[in-house]
């Protein structure tokens, strides 16, 4: 890929890869403790959710309960007493029931969780299946069998294979020399059973499509004490948390071979729980009592962890994508993590990505999702935003047709912002701004085609003009937001040096500084490149005049801006 400015060339692919890898991408998260009410949790553990995401089940092994969480209310709504020390659980969707293993009694319990009334959930059956202690448990819907691990001092561990209907023995136990190794976790994926052996530092793989499951292979992990397992469906990789060595192992699910190792001592500290969600692998760090993220596009750990859990030593994670939530079990209970940034639901306007469209002067309602609050909304060119409650606003669109800016600021989240282009009426030319709230006559216009195919030459230009008193000076900031699949982060246009265009992940300096009216009315090349494959998505460019010496990400933007925020979105194809 070529990055062309004047007579100089840059390798943009290398530059952007370097920027993405080292950028301060935040694992920003909004953490809310699950309300326990009368159902106090002593030691929450293994979790799973119903396929609709409305109900979540959490084991409490000390209390001997299965706690039921309403994911919309984020509260425990019932607790079902189960055995002496429930250890693991699995969900049978066809029968709408749970299977629960009990460590001390060697018993598997069946719990009816059909319907939407958690008070009606009840114990259906208990079946003693072994004299040994029971551990990890999984259900395979393809063969309608339950697999449960056993532990007995001085004896090799085994895995029982049970008929899901009545918990009768379905085939010979799985065992052998490799089972003298401490079974930590089990996972079923595409007809195979994956087992982490905590003591021998291996992962076992069984073909469970056979009447009697057959061992395929055991793989040595790139670390010590492998515990939790999680599948990244977008990569066809199995992630293994190596708690003892502060690493992750990745196994190729297509040929069941070792893929590589993830090592980052700054991001991983006694990793235990894993969950794949929204193209990130989330990691529960027990030593750091935080959550880290592996970005499958950046192919590395993100540098900023998610702190603020309401308890210590998180050890279990569960993604509930239907609710856009991540659940964390720790020493004090369970937290809900809103694992996304802000977004809006628009009633009365049309929303397409970062573009809202409404008629001139129309009124519509915006409801803010995610973020932390307290929120503020800035709207250009005479539009108004009236607060209805903490997350709902009534917007009156500007009268002039064309493109306008609508920016939502999240005050309690370091004033992070979410910007939209508000298209009023039918017209929707290049992003532009004329005038601002201070009365200055300003003009910022992005110039360029809004759709490019692989091989096209991409050129984005910015025309600027600023007219004010001869004593007033401003700074011009320019940024681009990359697509969500590449992290969704902002990169800021640095001043041109030697004719080379340069973007940086931190807002450290403006594109142009200390401008007077006489310094403007010029045209800048913001981006020029030949589009290669693999960079497809929506890229949004931003431009803004602010008070000289101020930083739009660190200072109160509403008070320092000297123009409307101008946005222009372009679409790059992958082919």
Automatic annotation (TrEMBL):
Signal peptide (residue range): 1-27
InterPro entries xref list: Host-pathogen_enzymatic-act, Lactonase_7-beta_prop, WD40/YVTN_repeat-like_dom_sf
Name this polypeptide is given: Lactonase, 7-bladed beta-propeller
UniProt keyword Ribosomal protein present: no
Phylogenetic lineage: Bacteria, Pseudomonadati, Pseudomonadota, Gammaproteobacteria, Thiotrichales
Database matches in Pfam families: Lactonase
Keywords: Signal
Gene3D superfamilies xref list: YVTN repeat-like/Quinoprotein amine dehydrogenase
């Amino acid at each position: 890929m070529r990055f062309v400015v004047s007579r100089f060339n840059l390798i943009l692919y290398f530059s952007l890869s370097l920027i993405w890898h080292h950028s301060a991408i935040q694992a920003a998260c909004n953490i809310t403790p699950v309300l326990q009410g009368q159902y106090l949790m002593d030691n929450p553990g293994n979790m799973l959710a119903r396929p609709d995401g409305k109900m979540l089940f959490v084991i409490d092994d000390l209390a001997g309960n299965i706690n039921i969480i309403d994911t919309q209310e984020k509260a425990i709504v019932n607790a079902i007493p189960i055995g002496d020390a429930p250890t693991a659980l699995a969900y049978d969707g066809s029968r709408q029931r749970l299977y629960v293993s009990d460590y001390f009694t060697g018993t598997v319990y069946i719990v009816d969780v059909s319907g939407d009334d958690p008070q009606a959930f009840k114990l259906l059956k208990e079946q003693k299946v072994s004299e040994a202690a029971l551990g990890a448990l999984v259900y395979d819907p393809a063969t309608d069998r339950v697999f449960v691990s056993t532990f007995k001092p001085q004896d090799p561990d085994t895995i029982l294979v049970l008929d899901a209907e009545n918990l009768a023995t379905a085939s010979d136990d799985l065992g052998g020399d490799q089972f003298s190794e401490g079974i930590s976790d089990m996972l079923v994926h595409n007809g195979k059973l994956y087992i982490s052996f905590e003591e021998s530092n291996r992962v076992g793989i069984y073909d469970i499509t056979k009447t009697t499951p057959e061992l395929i292979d055991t793989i040595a992990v790139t670390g010590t004490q492998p515990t939790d397992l999680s599948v990244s469906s977008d990569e066809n990789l199995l992630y293994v948390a190596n708690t003892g060595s502060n690493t992750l192992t990745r196994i190729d699910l297509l040929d069941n071979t070792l893929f590589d190792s993830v090592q980052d001592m700054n991001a991983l500290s006694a990793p235990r729980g894993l969950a794949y969600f929204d193209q990130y692998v989330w990691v529960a760090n027990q030593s750091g009592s935080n959550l880290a993220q592996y970005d499958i596009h950046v192919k590395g750990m993100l540098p900023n962890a998610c702190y603020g859990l309401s308890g210590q030593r998180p050890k279990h994670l569960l993604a509930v994508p239907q609710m856009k939530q991540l659940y964390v079990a720790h020493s004090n209970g369970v937290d809900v993590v809103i694992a996304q940034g802000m977004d809006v639901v628009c009633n009365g306007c049309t929303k397409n990505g970062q573009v809202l469209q409404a008629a001139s002067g129309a009124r519509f309602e915006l409801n803010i999702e995610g973020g932390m609050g307290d929120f503020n909304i800035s709207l250009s060119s005479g539009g108004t935003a009236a607060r209805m409650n903490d997350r709902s606003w009534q917007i009156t669109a500007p009268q002039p047709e064309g493109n306008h800016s609508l920016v939502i600021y999240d005050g309690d989240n370091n004033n992070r912002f979410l910007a939209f282009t508000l298209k009023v009426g039918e017209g929707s030319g290049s992003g532009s701004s004329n005038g601002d709230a201070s009365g200055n006559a300003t003009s910022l216009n992005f110039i360029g085609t809004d759709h490019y195919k692989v091989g096209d030459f991409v050129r984005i230009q910015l025309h600027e003009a600023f007219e004010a008193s001869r004593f007033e000076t401003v700074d011009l900031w320019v940024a681009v937001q990359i697509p969500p699949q590449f992290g969704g982060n902002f990169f800021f246009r640095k001043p041109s040096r030697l004719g080379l265009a340069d973007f940086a992940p931190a807002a450290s300096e403006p594109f142009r500084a200390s401008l007077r009216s006489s310094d403007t009315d010029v045209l800048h090349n913001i981006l020029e490149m030949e589009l290669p494959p693999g960079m497809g998505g929506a890229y949004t460019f931003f431009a803004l005049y602010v008070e000289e010496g101020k930083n739009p990400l660190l200072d109160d933007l509403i008070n320092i801006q000297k123009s409307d925020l101008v946005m222009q979105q372009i679409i790059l194809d992958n082919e």
